[in-house]
Amino acid sequence: MVVSLVKANPALAPLFLFAGAGCAAAVAYPMYLLRTHPEILVDRKNNPAPWNRVKQHENIKFINVKPEFYEARKNLDRPSY
Q1: Where in the sequence is the domain holding 4, given as residue range(s)?
Q2: 2 and 28: one domain?
Q3: 80 & 48 share domain
Q4: Long-range contacts of residues 12-17, Cβ cutoff 8 Å, at least 24 apart
Q5: The model scores a pTM over 0.85
Q6: Are residues 21 and 48 in the same domain?
Q7: Is 58:70 a contact under the CB 8 Å cutoff?
Q8: What is the mean pLDDT of residues 38-67?
Q9: How many domains in the chain?
Q10: DSSP string covering the chain, please?
Q11: What is the separation of C-alpha 73 from the centre of its chain, rounded to a whole number of angstroms?
């Protein structure tokens, strides 16, 4: 159906291409966030506090503006209260 429509109207090919890429990105980015960010909870029963596994020198942000900040924290001890 879609292939015959694109063959009849080749100008619609970029529309389907970008719409398909947008749909793929709309699924892929939340999956990336669920897998890599510890502050997002999916399974509370097996791991109720995943943010406690993050070390002080680990960067969990999407964009790292100051990488030297995390490098300076590498040798610090984790405070215990």
Answers
A1: 1-36
A2: yes
A3: yes
A4: none
A5: no
A6: no
A7: yes
A8: 74
A9: 2
A10: -HHHHHHH-GGGHHHHHHHHHHHHHHHHHHHHHHHH-TTS-S-TTT-S-GGGG--TT---SSS-S-HHHHHHTTTPPPP--
A11: 24
Could you tell me if 16 and 6 are in contact, meaning their C-beta atoms sit under 8 angstroms apart?
yes
Same domain, 77 and 56: yes
- Separation CA 61–CA 70 (nearest Å): 11
Residue with tokens 């097996």: 46
Give 65's pLDDT tier (boundaries 50, 70, 90). Answer: confident
The answer to whether the Cα torsion of 6, 11, 17, 22 is positive or negative is: negative
Q: Is 43 left (phi over 0), alpha (psi -120 to 50) or beta?
A: beta
